[in-house]
Request: fold
Amino acid sequence: MSGTTTAPGPLSSAAHAAHVARLTPVLTARDVSIEYEVDPPVRAVRDVSLTLHRGEILGLAGESGCGKSTLAYGLDRLIRPPAVMTSGQVTFHDADGTETDVVALDGDALRAFRWDKVSMVFQGAMNSLNPVISVRAQLEDVLTTHRPHLTKQRRRERCAELLQLVGVDPGRLDAFAHELSGGMRQRVMIAMAMALDPQVMIMDEPTTALDVVVQREILRQIMRLRETFGFAVVFITHDLPLLLEIADRIAVMRAGEIVELDTAEQLYAEPQHEYTQQLLSSFPSLLGEFSYDEERR
Ligand SMILES: Nc1ncnc2c1ncn2[C@@H]1O[C@H](COP(=O)(O)OP(=O)(O)OP(=O)(O)O)[C@@H](O)[C@H]1O
Ligand SMILES: [Mg+2]
Reply:
């Protein structure tokens, strides 16, 4: 760089900084294969490689049973018997510059990584809130375990803050799961996944069980939170049209393999793989009226 002063151009804009940030990897998977060692064995994930960039929403689409959840478990080191990761590497590129070999994590290091760096909203999570303890107690539990230095006061404030972020009245903190609607329970699960400010959130079908209106509201909220906090999202669903609206890039999975991975625009305009074309054409009513640009606005 020369010492001459130049007018602020696109390179100094916040938008450009955000763009560059998104080209920085935060999580990479290389040749990941995962098998369920049952009889006969199921090769659920086959040689999958992908890069998740900082702050991006990466959609993972594909029919039921193609291996989406299994891959998600692989990315968050949640594989346990009968599942075995038979090959591959997963690397987390921390904002502080540290590189973490996710597969090798164990014990305390694993506990410090999960939730803290990469959190997960599990498929069917809204039904996994503990029925006999309050929302507050469950949120506080995450904070007590991972942020033991927080004062009681600060912990309580953080719980209220978290509910507010996901659009639930903090007045509901003392409620039990059965006192909340499905949408609220799912929001609480998202709040829990956000509790420690993770750099990556993996969301496995976070809105599938909800009606369309609630689903839209929650998605909008996730998009806003992503803008505010800059976390990256792996968003898993079989609903490809939904991904076209919210994802920056989309990976299409079939029978354990990623058959196509591209920007949402490109995938919609020129799907390369026959299976992607099939997936897109299986939503005819929507595509009949669907204008990609209008929908994204
Ligand atoms: N515990 C298990 N034991 C044996 N096979 C399993 C187990 N869990 C999943 N599988 C198999 O692994 C494959 C991938 O399953 P996975 O749950 O990852 O698919 P998915 O894409 O998430 O499906 P869905 O959209 O229905 O959630 C399927 O063939 C499934 O039957
Ligand atoms: Mg699944």
